[in-house]
Structure prediction request, 646 residues.
Amino acid sequence: MAVSHDLTKLLQENLDKIQEPSGYAALRKRLMESRPKHAAPAIKQSPENTLKIENSGTE
Amino acid sequence: MSETTEIPDTPSAPRPLTVADVIKIVLPDGTRGTRRWTDICEWPPDLFAVVASITERSGLYSQEVFTAYWSNDFVLTDQWIKDIRAVGSEWADTDSTPRHARALWRELFNDHGNAPIEDPSPSALAWKKIVFDLLVIADEACSGVGFLPESSEKRVSNVQYAVYNDYLAWSKYCTVDPDRVGGDILPHLPFSLCIHVPRGLLCVQPKATTPAVGCTLRSLTHNLALLPSVGNVRTSWIPASDTRQHNEPFNILVVPFPFSIPGGSFSPEKGQFPGEARDRVFRLDPGKWMNRDPARWTGEVTPQDFADFLCGLIDEAKSELEPVHAVVLPETAIKFQLANQVADILAAKTELHLFLAGVLSKESDRDTGRNLAAIYRFVEHKVVQRSFQSKHHRWGLDGGQIRRYQLGHVLDPHCKWWEQINVGDRACYISSFRSYATLSVLVCEDLARYDPVLTVMNAIGPNLVVALLMDGPQLEHRWPGRYATVLADDPGSAVLTVTSFGMVLRSRNPGEPENREIALWKEPNGKAQVLKLPKRSHGLLLTLTNRLVEQFTLDGRGDGKMTMQFTLGAAHGIAHPNPPAWIGPVP
Prediction:
């Protein structure tokens, strides 16, 4: 699966419309501190899903 | 006179699996990654994974105390719902685990850790009630995960915000590396919401629909779904790019291309499977149906040709309604490279949000090739997401089907012919294409085979399932109608099956009236609707109306009208004003 910068931008805009909940920063800090230590094995998708989206849709 | 049969002692068996065993299997590094299990998980989806696993293996949800309000022992009172929701809500909104949940976990692990998971006795109810409570608390703590409201006017919890924020982080990394797994906090995104539960064991994903029937783990939750390991099937959940609440209908243009399929498109390959089996393989060649114009048979149909044809249909549809939101092509309609280029042109030239197409892909002569569902999401004239879902099961043509499709001259009806495709890399994509509306696509056989993708469909319950088929007429009594009905019933998805007009036409004997049933619609609580392609039409324009409905879990918790349901509002035939000759004659 490939996603574009435009999707990232839209997700960011959606999040910007929401006020960050008051306890989020503390929750994030705690979860970051207890993150697992192991590196998970890489997942390789089918070749069709690994093609990046390059400036699509521009005429 | 009867003889007395002496029954020997029950044979020795392995030590019974205990509650603590399951906890340690699901969380091998401990509840917080410190090889300790005495404290509750900090992250609700981790807790859900472990208590849902205990629930599944013990089958505790089917006991009368949880299901029969008329029973004296029934525990799920209105007060219980109120109290347990408050605990879940507290966890969602604060940065630490509620005291009541911590106490329940300690009691479960310390006092009942050695309890056998299969124990049906009344004494086991003590730990089963704890597990049930923790399951509901975890589900409530994850209210709204995978979605985001349009503004803060609606409550957004810490957990919901954290999940969405991490999808954002993952999407940034994925633009650079499409194989990327993990955001900043959640190491398994987009495959699982868990932190400390190995994705090779099981996955947890957001959920769209709660089954209204049956008594299963799936009917106990609104917000979280328990899924198989990524080794079995990789399920990706992609959040909506637009969080506005849409009330307008969703318009789908179904184009049942190809409109004719020559028998030579089915090409037998040399060799056969080992042993005595008469099982062989065939390959599909889209080149045979792509250009049906004898005057230009050496000429290639270009991406621009194909996109122009689709744009002509979209323009024609505007006389009836606009905008068209999605275009759907059936299984194996076009080749992979062509689809990518057509998608780019459609994104630029139209107002489409979605383009779904069945495509065939073959990297090289040595590559087996894949039969894929291509899913393209467009926003503001750009492709923002592109995913390709391999078909999970090969089509097997038996003698009956070979005769029905008039293919006995190319495939020996005395053999069984299997589609020569690669069925590895099993993935499934759940795309949130509108606020609180999710879509999933299935390829032909996958609609009928239970494992592994239907397990995912049942657990998550996408609001809309589109099945791309290479099949005969879409009639309610045929297999697509039967399986669409199953999905519409449980989990409650609306299902659209789509096949090519070319295959529908092949499904008759010479001289018989032609079939025209190219699609079938089935919605929850509704009758199946067979959709025919009108004479000389090239597409069907379907209008889906949507509404938010309230669903309830088995324990009586409503979701506050947060479930999207689609209903077929209208269907119109669309004829291209100047159909290109390469599509062939369309009766």
User: Anything to note?
Assistant: Chain A has two helices and one strand. The first strand of chain A starts at residue 2 and ends at 3.
